[in-house]
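Newbie here. two chains, one complex. Structure please?
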Amino acid sequence: MSFKDIRAIYSIWLRDLTRYRRDRFRLVSSVAQPALYLFVFGTGLSRGLAIRGGSGSSLGPVDNYVVFIYPGILGMSLLFTSIFSAMSIIWDREFGFLKEVMVAPISRTSVAIGKAMGGSTVAVIQGLIILLFAPFIGVSFSIQTLVIIIPLMFLISFSLTSFGIVIAARMESMEGFQMVMNFLVMPLFLLSGAMFPIERLPEWLKALTVLDPLTYGVDALRGLMLGMEVSANPISLNIAVIIAFGAAMISLAVVMFNRKE
Amino acid sequence: MAMIEVDNVRKLFDEILAVDGVSFKVHEGEVFGFLGPNGAGKTTTINILCTLMQPTSGRAVLNGYDVVKSPHDVRSSIGIVFQDPSLDERLSAKENLNFHALVYNIPKEKREERIKKVLDLIDLTPRQNDIVRTFSGGMKRRLEIGRGLLHFPKVLFLDEPTLGLDPQTRHHIWDYLNELREKERITIFLTTHYMDEAENCDRVAIIDQGKIIALDTPDELKKSIGGDTIKLKTKDNIKVAKEIESRFKLQVIIDDGTIFIKTDDGESMLPRLISDQSIPVVSVSVHRPTLEDVFLHLTGRKIREEQGSAIKSMRSHVRALRRR
């Protein structure tokens, strides 16, 4: 990779960040949606259905449902932001800007990587905002943990944005966006174990959660934030799966962008 | 040296030949126009030259680089203004230019200066920090032209540069383009279906159904279908017609109370006709053939001057209603 490619990646990344900075609505909704899930849905479900935590309970060692779903909501936010960023390619195609990019003397590879970097950076910023909720929920973790969580968030977001790019690369119209939300993003979110523990699920459902890449991200985040005894898989397995998935997706995204008409 | 050299290029889309064996050369510093109706293959040819599409067969070389073998070098050599807008409407004018400067590898120390110069040329300096979404159609088009010039391209492609713009804005844009030709020695390749726009070109290729059916300067093209026509009304058409035929040896037709005189050069013929005391002139006019006449002569059809696909589909809709 040459200096020229790095500059191309940087320019695509910079544009995504400039657009994000300008979009106040996105910033507000990125805080509002997780807050709704945590404080309204989480509180309502745990009190209304009397979900108890603590040793021997369904939540394992975690003693509070809102605390249990907190890393899951963080994962959800990364998922939504990453896919949304990737889907902006469809907008760019619709409004013509993609042509400006495609006809520029930069490699298609750097376009795909720049897009993945831009989406992941925005997702990490969103994630950091969610981490600010921690004191209100009663979760605390050390600075050392935070130093590990940030690159982990980036890794998760990078793999999900790349996945989104693979899908958006073939999509010609905005109608497809709704399809992606209903048939891809929502299943990924619900099957990830963000909202409930996976151990006690029936076998058929458990099998599906294993196929969801976000499962490993949520599990890794939960282990880091709430204590390793809470997570189902060893952290090394989680990170290995995320890296493998991310590498496969970005490679596929690069291939899709290099195809010619 | 030819800046663009196209040799027998064809492009097949699912059994439809959009471009059917097109060959031409564009010289450095020339303004070259592609004139033809919608769907004639103009945009497809541009897309091939810009490396956005690959030709099914044939060869195209731009600035010495083959469009299929060295797309990167071709892309560095060209600037493009697409038919449809291609700006990021959520960024400011300056941010759009800055993005372009980055991806086109303009060195940092020259970037600021070049952006400033281009903003000046397109008259957008006072609006440079405004979001593009708030711009008018003409301003957006100017910004796109400016952006296309930012990296000193050898060739500037303009695909229907004034489509959908009002006549005043069209006029302004042509002022900019003509200024540009003088200031920077740049090759311009444009497509259009406006006759007056084609008149601005050094040479025009008339394209229809994927084929070039004529290629020359606008003047030569017009001459090729015969010279001017003088329309003359007199008190005694029959007598005068005979006299003109015998004295000037010109082809004369009388129709609808008017004498039509075919001549190679109407402007120099006219004073001779009028100064002749024996011809009692009532009214006189010279009609020069237009490129529209050339197209009509070559294809038997008119190039319809349509504003865009919306109006076109509306019109066909209205037509369909009328037929009922």
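Moderator note: Chain A has one domain: 3-259. The interface with chain B takes residues 4, 7-8, 10-11, 14-15, 18-19, 22-23, 92, 95-107, 260-261 of chain A (CB under 8 Å). Thread marked as resolved.
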